[in-house]
Design brief:
- The complex is a heterodimer of chains A (233) and B (96).
- Chain A folds into two domains: 168 residues, no CATH class; 49 residues, no CATH class.
- Chain A is 75% helix and 0% strand.
- Chain A contains eleven helices and no strands.
- Chain A starts with a helix and ends with a helix.
- Chain B has 96 residues and is mostly helical.
- Chain B folds into two domains: 55 residues, no CATH class; 40 residues.
- Chain B contains four helices and no strands.
- In chain B, α3 packs antiparallel against α4.
- Classes of the chains: A mainly alpha (233), B mainly alpha (96).
- Chains A and B meet through α1, α2, α3, α4 and α5 of A and α1, α2, α3 and α4 of B.
Chain lengths: 233, 96
């Protein structure tokens, strides 16, 4: 009887997860296709670029890795850049940690792996439903989201070669980053962070191994944080 | 092999960051939280700057026009495919 009730709860959690994650999963498809096209256009090998989606576990970092490599960055600069892109996972993890305390260790590792923007937004709204429900919900939502994302990236890799040569595909990465950047620049600290980030990166473009990129990111984030901390003083 | 190593290092580092507070239980220092919050615009802008300075389309009128249109459309809430198509159309229409 207990097993039957548990099974029903699991089914319900998985169904809820699929229903609630479906719009977000469908929403990542165009982005994933374009990342696939961008990876095909970058010096990354198609196989590593494709499976990199599962290894990196984050679309923005996946694109950042391809973008850094395309920009000529070295290993250290590319890894640092992508890790900084995924650094908001620290915040998500810190925010979600109290709600996952009752979960087994294996699941907390799995949850950490899949903690991308959409997962955080969705799962943070169901954490009061009990450990077993959250576990089933999380696993189903993550499987759907990651599966859809990978299908999109694969489609993009297949589509890339049939797109005519006159289409400026090399601009796809900076255009996508610009589109992701524009909505984040609302307040003064974000504006300062963006201007300092782009400016220092361009000034340091000749630094070896693409370290200008890392310098730009650090300078931008520190400038934004400083303006927030001391701007009103 | 180098590309695979890059992906693996990013994957391990990302997992470590996300797991830090989920698997262990401690609080994020306020200064680090502030840095991470402002990292997003800095990173995206740096990647745009790096792409342009690194030769991805250069800094010609076509590329600058494409990024300007992308910025305006994204600020108005346009979806990514629309922004991408419009940006590339502008790049094709303008010289360089």
């Amino acid at each position: 009887m207990t097993i039957a009730i548990r099974q029903a709860r699991s089914d319900s959690a998985a169904g809820d997860a699929i229903r609630q994650m479906m719009p977000a999963a469908v929403g990542v498809v165009p982005f994933a296709i374009m990342i696939g096209v961008a990876i095909g256009e970058s010096p990354l090998s198609d196989v590593v670029g494709f499976f990199g989606g599962l290894i990196v576990a984050g679309g923005s970092a996946h694109l950042a890795a391809a973008g850094s490599i395309s920009a000529g960055a070295g290993l250290a600069a590319t890894v640092t850049t992508a890790l900084l892109v995924n650094a908001r996972g620290l915040l998500y993890g810190a925010a979600l940690a109290p709600d996952l305390r009752d979960q087994p260790t294996w699941f907390r590792w799995v949850a950490a792996y899949g903690l991308v923007d959409q997962m955080y937004a969705l799962v943070s709204s169901v954490t009061s439903r009990g450990a077993e429900y959250v576990r089933s919900f999380y696993l189903a939502a993550m499987t759907l989201l990651f599966g859809t994302y990978m299908a999109g990236v694969g489609t993009g890799l297949l589509l890339g070669p049939v797109i005519p040569a006159w289409v400026p595909l090399s601009l796809s990465i900076p255009i996508m980053f610009t589109a992701m950047l524009a909505p984040t620049v609302e307040a003064r600290p974000a504006m300062v962070a963006a201007v300092a980030g782009a400016g220092v990166t361009m000034l340091g473009a000749q630094l070896p191994s693409g370290m200008g990129l890392v310098a730009g990111i650090v300078a931008g984030a520190l400038s934004g944080a400083a303006i927030e901390r001391f701007g009103d003083a | 092999m180098r590309d695979l190593l890059i992906m693996a290092l990013i994957g391990v580092g990302t997992l470590g960051m996300r797991a830090l507070f989920i698997v262990r239980t401690s609080a994020l220092p306020a200064s680090l939280e502030r840095f991470v919050r402002h990292a997003k615009p800095a990173i995206l802008a740096a990647l745009v700057g790096g792409s342009m300075a690194g030769g991805e389309g250069g800094l010609g009128p076509g590329a600058l026009g494409a990024l300007t249109v992308a910025w305006i459309l994204a600020r108005r809430g346009a979806s990514m495919p629309i922004v991408l198509v419009a940006g590339m159309a502008v790049a094709l229409a303008l010289p360089g």
